[in-house]
Specification:
The chain is built from 8 helices and 11 strands. The strands form 3 sheets. The protein has a 7-stranded mixed sheet, sandwiched between helices. A two-stranded antiparallel sheet has the order 6-7. It is an alpha/beta fold. The two termini are about 30 Å apart. Bound molecules: S-adenosylmethionine (SAM). S-adenosylmethionine binds next to helix 3.
């Protein structure tokens, strides 16, 4: 099932306000990590799956990429991307990753920042990505860490009576599939997969694993968002980099 949560008015308003604050897990944990995994953008063609409002597409162009195609299921996000992060060498299209067909097109880098956990059929996604990569092309994606998506309620912290975090709890790890979460609104759907599924599906499709990052906050994040110290206790995200061997 494809869910377009970012076009829900309440969700979009709250999510946009969060991202515009500049004080987020994205700014201090996930984005620095995914950017650090990119070898070199010079002259590269880039496909950004789940591109959101296009900051990453713009970043790629500003750092030497020759062209970027940004794809997102949300009309709200694409509209904002076209307004705020337009560039002659960036195209944005509003379509789901699942429905995307790009016959005869190949990219040097396929990137996806925090969108893969919204896609139900991971095997099919990886097959699609592999067919869109040039020889030696890179696929780099971040997703919510399996230890965060594992529990059915997605509420891992166990707290004492005063609300102090005692430890992170893990359950249902081997039970892959749909999870439902309250995030601004009820019923936000994500998909849990084990680390072995995330990695082995890449390998089964001829992608060579190059790097895995379980990021912590960059130093400025710890000052601006003290709760990011908890990333030392358990990671919220995982970044996986692989390369097309064909
Ligand atoms: C957490 S946001 C990240 C946006 C952007 N990559 C960034 O890092 O700023 C996830 C994005 O994935 C998009 N998305 C979710 N499911 C999708 C799907 N099935 N196909 C395409 N985009 C999807 C959402 O609309 C949203 O823009």
């Amino acid at each position: 099932m494809k869910q377009n949560i970012y076009d829900d008015p309440k969700f979009f308003k709250e999510y946009s306000a969060l991202r515009e604050s500049g004080i987020t897990y994205n700014d201090f944990v996930e984005q620095p990590a995914i950017k650090s995994a990119i070898s070199n953008l010079d002259g590269k063609s880039v496909l950004d799956l789940g591109c959101g409002t296009g900051e990453f597409a713009k970043y790629c162009i500003e750092n030497g990429a020759s062209k970027v195609l940004g794809v997102d299921i949300s009309a709200n996000m694409i509209e904002k991307a076209k307004k705020e992060n337009a560039h002659n060498n960036i195209d944005y299209i509003c379509i789901s990753i699942e429905d995307l067909e790009l016959e005869n097109q190949k990219f040097d880098l396929v990137i996806s920042s925090l969108a893969v956990h919204y896609v139900e059929d991971y095997a099919n996604l990886i097959k699609k990505v592999r067919n869109l990569l040039t020889k030696n092309g890179e696929f780099i994606f971040s997703t919510e860490h399996p230890i965060v998506t594992a529990k059915k309620e997605m509420n891992g912290w166990v707290k004492d009576v005063d609300g102090n975090k005692l430890h992170w709890s893990l359950d249902n790890y081997q039970e892959e599939g749909k999870r439902e979460q309250h995030w601004y609104i009820d019923g936000v759907i994500k998909y849990h997969r084990t680390i072995s599924t995330l990695v082995n599906t890449l390998i089964e499709n001829g992608l060579v694993l190059e790097k895995i990052i379980e990021p912590q906050s960059i130093p400025v994040g710890l000052q601006k968002m003290p709760k990011l110290v908890n990333e030392k206790r358990r990671p919220s995200f995982i970044v996986i980099k692989s390369r097309n061997s064909f």
